């Protein structure tokens, strides 16, 4: 059973950009079997957990909590439903006593995030586990975390610490079996009956033809099923002479490798607005940030491989361009005459040829 034990929902964590339902949908889409909401200083009510589990069965939802201590460390607590645990003023020794009296489970979250050393006396106040992988743990810290785990006999957990749908399950734990309840989950964690997992699947938000969100799917699913509409943004970048910048797609691309394409194009992240996505893609792909971004048109692009709801913008740029080498083989400005002379010859992607016609309308 694959489960992410450190996830934040916007219903209780103000720093999260995703709701419970969005996070659950994302977890399902990448193949997780369960997750645990560990919001900041707020428990998920037991009755609400029961509702979520009934609604999403057989997917499992558990509840925990993340507490920021006076010692400026964060602790994940599982197996406690006493509302006193939600206090904002815990000192580690007091929390340790409180959790141990109630047979709860404690894990140190993202060590070294705030300080170069762990500010807790783990020798005197034993905890159960320590996070060794998350989006807030650089790979360079892993060996030091493992040393702490070995020294104090701690289990190591891999969790996402997700505050958005694209991060859910990025790191997770694979339990040997599905737990019957929270008590059984803690038994599996204490006994080490799990391994660490890592997801490389990129999530896309699915929409209908009008752009209304209807679900989630992985990149692989979207690029093999034209019934799944996902959202992309394009930016047509022109210079002062009216030439259009085009990029040559890298040969490792899964769709239309080696073809010349729109200046900038990329998938929108779940929950991202189109204009923000356009600026992000321009910075990522060309290292530019024009100040005259303008919406141009929207259309549904469909091929044998995929279906994209495309929102296209235009912008002007006369400065240097640095292409993203991992994604783009080369890039340059083309005159409209050059482009017209190469249409229909397999030089450009079919999508760009449609885009170019729309630009001239």
Q: Which overall shape is indicated by the principal axes computed on the Cα atoms?
A: elongated
H/I helix tally: 9
Integer count of domains: 2
H and E string? EHEHEEHEEHEEHEEEHEEEEHEEEHH
- Return the CATH architecture of the largest domain: Alpha-Beta Barrel
In CATH, the homologous superfamily of the largest domain goes by the name Metal-dependent hydrolases
Report how far apart the termini are. Answer: 54 Å
Q: Look at the structure and give the mean pLDDT.
A: 94
Beta-strand content = 25-35%
The strand line-up of the biggest sheet is 7-6-5-4-3-2-1-8-9
Q: Count of DSSP E strands?
A: 18
If you compute it from the alpha carbons, what radius of gyration comes out, rounded to the nearest whole angstrom? 24 Å
Task: Characterize the structure shown.
The structure is a single chain. The chain has 361 residues and is of the alpha/beta class. It has helices at 20-29, 46-56, 92-101, 142-152, 182-191, 219-222, 274-286, 336-342, 350-360; strands at 2-7, 34-37, 60-68, 74-78, 105-108, 129-133, 155-158, 171-175, 194-198, 203-207, 213-218, 229-238, 244-249, 260-261, 264-267, 294-302, 307-316, 328-334. The chain has nine helices and 18 strands. The strands form four sheets. It has a nine-stranded mixed beta sheet. A four-stranded mixed beta sheet has the order 15-12-17-16, sandwiched between helices. The mean pLDDT is 94.
